[in-house]
């Protein structure tokens, strides 16, 4: 049974809406002002809120923004109930994060339809988050099969996110980059542990199998709409600037930016991680090695310059510890 929070400073309005919602089979929580609404919201499971805009003290706009902030990344639908139909109020409502409006005096049928449609959106969103979480968890679990790669994707994710925000890209792009970092090697889930853990050189056949993790990773993530943006990063993170990489042999700027970023971070992490055949390299030494190889054709030289510029001071000041 969906649980709705209704906030209005006029008790008779609350009673009216409550009666309509109960008839519809919703569970109803009511509040006469913002603070008790927030308290109910924190302590109770609420699926959606209907807020009156004009209230003394904290108004509906502000309360909406507070509830959205508390919800964080979880989608929490809010409908504003307002006598204000002017453009300015609508914009203010949208700025506060409101998902829909309904004008007073309201039409009960319209309100119920809007609520049901937002609840459906919420349940679809939750399903999607659930599927996404399963894949993210699988990526972490997969790495744990091999002590030498344990934690690799989480570290790559963190550093790739830091780098993207250093480059001045948006918060959304930073989040996408972090997700791509976690998932870039998810295709390795299809490889046997004997190949993954093999200490010696791989046969041609084994090496071809390992290379397939790029396209397999893309296949695994493709069904989820929320992953679409990061598919190029997964597919192309082993391309080389000079065109000799895989799976598509792309060259230079034809390689998606996210893949060019991952390629640098992936190598850096591999260098500072312990491998069966060698111990850990220091971050400073890894940066020296990358810099020495900067014109060898593996990476985007300009991007690499930015990466070194970001990392050098952090490593020198000891603000960067790894592994
Ligand atoms: Fe990879």
Strand count, sense and barrel status of the largest sheet are: 5 strands, parallel
- The helix/strand order is EHEHEHEHEHHHHHHHHHH
Q: Structural class, from helix and strand content?
A: alpha/beta
Question: How far apart are the termini?
Answer: 46 Å
What is the oligomer described by this structure?
single chain
Pick out the low-confidence regions.
none
Radius of gyration: 26 Å
Number of helices: 14
Question: Percent of residues in beta strands?
Answer: 5-15%
| Biggest β-sheet: strands ordered side by side in the sheet | 2-1-3-4-5
By DSSP, the count of extended strands is 5
Mean pLDDT: 91
Please bin the fraction of helical residues. 40-55%
Overall 3D shape:
elongated
Bound molecules: fe (ii) ion
Key words describing this protein structure:
323 residues, five-stranded parallel sheet, binds fe (ii) ion, single chain, 14 helices
């Amino acid at each position: 049974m969906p649980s709705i929070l209704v906030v209005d400073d006029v008790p008779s309005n609350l009673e009216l809406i409550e009666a309509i919602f109960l008839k519809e089979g919703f569970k109803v929580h009511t509040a006469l002002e913002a603070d008790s609404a927030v308290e109910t919201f924190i302590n109770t499971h609420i699926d959606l809120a209907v807020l009156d805009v004009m209230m003394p003290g904290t108004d509906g706009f502000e309360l909406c923004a507070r509830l959205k902030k508390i919800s964080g990344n979880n989608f929490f639908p809010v409908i504003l109930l307002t006598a204000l139909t002017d453009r300015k109020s609508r914009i203010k409502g949208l700025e506060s994060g409101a998902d829909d409006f309904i004008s007073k005096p309201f039409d009960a049928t319209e309100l119920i339809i809007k609520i049901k449609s937002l609840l459906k959106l919420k349940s679809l969103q939750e399903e999607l988050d659930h599927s996404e979480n399963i894949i993210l968890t699988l990526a972490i679990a997969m790495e744990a099969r091999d002590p030498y790669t344990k934690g690799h994707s989480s570290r790559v994710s963190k550093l790739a996110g830091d780098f993207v925000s250093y480059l001045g890209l948006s918060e959304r792009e930073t989040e996408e980059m972090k997700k791509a970092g976690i998932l870039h090697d998810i295709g390795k889930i299809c490889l046997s542990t004997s190949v993954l853990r093999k200490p010696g050189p791989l046969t041609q056949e084994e090496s071809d199998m390992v290379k397939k993790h790029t396209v397999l990773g893309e296949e695994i993530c493709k069904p989820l709409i929320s992953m679409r943006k990061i598919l190029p990063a997964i597919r192309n993170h082993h391309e080389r600037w000079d065109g000799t990489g895989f799976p598509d042999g792309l060259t230079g700027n034809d390689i998606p930016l996210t893949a060019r970023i991952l390629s640098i971070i992936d190598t850096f992490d591999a260098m500072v991680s312990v491998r069966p055949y060698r111990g850990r390299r220091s971050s400073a030494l890894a940066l020296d090695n990358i810099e020495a190889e900067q014109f060898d054709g593996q990476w985007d030289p300009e991007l690499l310059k930015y990466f070194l510029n970001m990392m050098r001071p952090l490593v020198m000041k000891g603000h960067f510890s790894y592994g």
